[in-house]
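Let us work through a complete example step by step.
Step 1: write down the sequence.
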Amino acid sequence: MRIIGIGLCLVLAVIVQAETEQDKKARLDILGEPNWREMVDDFERQLHDAKTDEDHLKCRMEAYKYLDGNYTSMTQGWVAIRLYEFTCNLPAGNIRHKYIEIMSIFLNKKNGVKCSMLLDFNKEDFTDLSRTLVMGKVMPPHKRNDYLLAGIVDFDSIKDKLKPYRYGEWTKNELGYPSKIKYGMKWTALLVYARNGDKDACREIIDVIKTEKNEDLVLNCLMPDLYYVKQPEIVVFLGECLNNDAVGIPGADDYPPTYRYERAISNLQKMLIGFPVNPYNHYTKWGGTMLVTIPYLKECREWFAKQKEWHFK
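Step 2: predict the structure and record it as tokens.
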């Protein structure tokens, strides 16, 4: 009996140890490696210090190492974000193409690149390789971002599928509920068609935002989608919002009020070449909220007023 008791204790000890290791891995997946911020910062510095084709090749190999390696979701997630942010600021051309190819390889993989990250780019940014990789992962489309990304990379592949929704009526579930409109097929179809030059779709998108009375949901659900469209009609509308000082969502407790001009700025930053860079963008580096100061707001309004024409990123 004594031997059996000792054996049972050893088995229990092994089980407890196994559970402890499992808990440790789960904790690391949430918190990241102990030095994950240093790792991400080093990767970011390497990106921004790259000057030659060889430097950029090393950066892409480093990105591949992180995204394909045995790192935690925290580390991989932030590496993907830094890779996306850096690629967004690259000029059009071969180097940008190569980074998008890396992002396309890890698209929709666990802890990798998300569909939403590739929505900032243009059809011309995708090579034959990245286009094949992307379409292989979003077709047939199941989620709204699948449709939005396919609408950039290969509009013809989903045009007919979205046509009934583009010209159809709003469903009862969508009407009056911006949160449901956002994820409904009608809104998705309007965004994709508008992105590809449908002026009537642009006007319908603007009408929905102008007539919806629930300002909270308009600012948090619908307006964040406008950068995707990249059409002059949307820029004009965002310019109206930029110059509007009215409070959208009143402040409460420790939360400041939200203004339409804040949503306009966040969209125009993604859409237009030369739009003023927010000096307080570092507040969002690790997931904080963008801070729009009065001097920065004034700079944005002055810049917008001086533009004779707009150039999309």
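Step 3: interpret the result. Residues 8-17 have pLDDT under 50 and may be disordered.
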